[in-house]
Amino acid sequence: MKKRISITLVLLMLLSLLVSCGDGNVKTTEPLTNEQTATETVPASTVEETDSGERKFIKDGLSDDIDYEGAPINIWIRQSFATDIMVENNETEDIINDAIYDRQHRVQERLGLEMKVNGVGTNKPTTYQAIETAIKANTGDMDVICMNYFQGGINLGVQGYLLNLQESEYLDFSKPWWSDNFISNSTPDSDITYFAAGHISQNYVTFSNGLALNTTAYERKIGDRQELYDLIIDRKWTMEEYKKMLKGTYEDLNGDGTQDANDFYGQYATKYALALNAFTIGAGVKYTTRDGSGKPVLSLNNSKTAAACEAVSDLFYNAEGVYFIEDTSHTVFTTRFDKFREGKAMTIYAYISDMVNFRDLEDDYTLIPFPMLDEDQGEYMTYLSPDITAWAIPTITSDADKAAIFMEAMASDAYNYVTPQIYEQAFQAAYARDPMTARMLDIIVDTAYIDFGLIHSDLIGNLYNFLTSDVYNTATGTFASAYDKNSKSWESGLEEIIDSYLSNWSAVSPAK
Fold first, then answer.
1. CB-side exposure of 415: number of CA atoms within 13 Å?
2. What whole-number distance in Å separates Cα of residue 150 and Cα of residue 130?
3. What are φ and ψ of residue 165, in 5° steps?
4. Distance between CA atoms of residues 225 and 220, nearest Å
């Protein structure tokens, strides 16, 4: 039975490699064979732990004799994401740049393909429009699509412009480099997958989010950080525990007797949709679930959602030690970085990629998961960002098998080689200061969550912004009345999307 890979082991091996190699840029050019051991110089995520305790290389199921003899593989991607899959050189002394460079050359050489990347669109909607137009025009030079599924992208599947990835013998979605949660919730039918996500896109990892925690401030204000880690590991990290932690953290730094932005707080926050959704989903809220027939249905209207919304509202409006700005702008949202760097906030919302902003912080810091509503929830839930890149194969591809093989090779190589370099860069200082950062990261990345309603939010009726715009306006929350105003239009929108999928299932699939 396959066990999940421990990021703790990843980082411990990386640390040992740093000691032996002298520089932080651990690079490999050839994957291990099944018989080779983890003692060789290779990023630690290329091995998995078995029941016997042995760790071995995770190999994909692609044949070793694939050779397309220099044929092109045409990739259409959002312009700003193009360097996620192809860079010009490996002389930048940037760990992730080098990892991307090495991956593109390993995959090209392995498959005998020449990657041709076409960057289109300056944002989510314009990328979607450019790709939709090209598919309709049947340009003939599009094999793989890489784009945000949010704000238009997912509509390509609804309209029937994409192939069903489940029908390809080359894509193995049981492998750990694919996100089972995303794939199983991306369409109304478990036998149909149009978009896939996972380690194949570095932002799947870097956009994992949690609470950046100043552990030096924690120990000064509260106590031994290990007690907090134990609470989290034992699945007792709840909203009530978080509020309890924040009590007594406030400190009047400028001595003016007024609680303002220049003082110290346990949590510095703004009314920004991404963060509020992350807290709400962390508290166990699911926008849609499946009924007995497997059909997606709205699942917000229940006592648990109401309780979670009340808990989140109470946290930001009433809890001691919280500085909450009722501003929804991204500009104000980014001020949290300054407060954390200045040592004026013990916790803030953060992506893994944000952690590079804190390398010069004198205090110790880490990243912890969002708290559960209560212990009955049983497991943490990390909101999968709407900004991640998803991959698809358009119906106009000239060779569906080639496209699927390329995706599987890129995904497995990323999992085995690129992801460890991302952790090394993002947490280079953090994990050196605090080994438990690795354990916290295990929890955050392994509990990524999204559902059908959130994936199709902008098509249903902006479910994504519902809580921020309609519920989190007062200390008590207004969930029941706000839900009643929107529920009929959401149910209608959900039915319409499902009907569109059913009437537009692509008749063309990757050949078996």
1. 23
2. 15
3. -65, -20
4. 10
Give residue-wise pLDDT tens across range 162-173.
999 999 999 999
Q: At which residue do the structure tokens 């109470």 appear?
A: 314
pLDDT tens column, 251-310: 999 888 889 999 999 999 999 988 998 999 999 999 999 999 999 999 999 999 989 989
Q: CA of 471: how far to CAs of 57, 313, 326, in Å?
A: 48, 9, 13
Query: By C-alpha distance, which of 290, 183, 194, 168 is closest to 505?
Result: 194
SS3 of 320-333 = CCEEEECCCCHHHH
Q: What H or E segment, with its residue span, contains residue 97?
A: helix 95-111
Place of tokens 């411990």: 12
Query: Per the structure block, which two tokens stand in for 480?
Result: 């029941």
Q: What is the mean pLDDT of residues 412-439?
A: 74
State the burial class of residue 95 (Cβ atoms within 10 Å of its Cβ: 0-12, 13-18, 19+).
buried
Q: In sequence order, what are the beta bridge partners of 210?
A: 350
Instruction: Residue 60: name the closest of 203, 210, 173 by CA.
Output: 173
DSSP secondary structure of 427-462: THHHHHH-THHHHHHHHHHHTEE--HHHHTHHHHT-
pTM summary value: 0.80
Q: What is the DSSP string of 69-88?
A: TTEEEEEEEEGGGGGGT--S
Over its C-alpha atoms, the chain yields an Rg (Å, rounded) of: 23
Which residue bears the tokens 């200390």? 475
Structure token pair of residue 213: 């925690």
Q: Euclidean distance between the first and final Cα of the chain, in Å?
A: 28
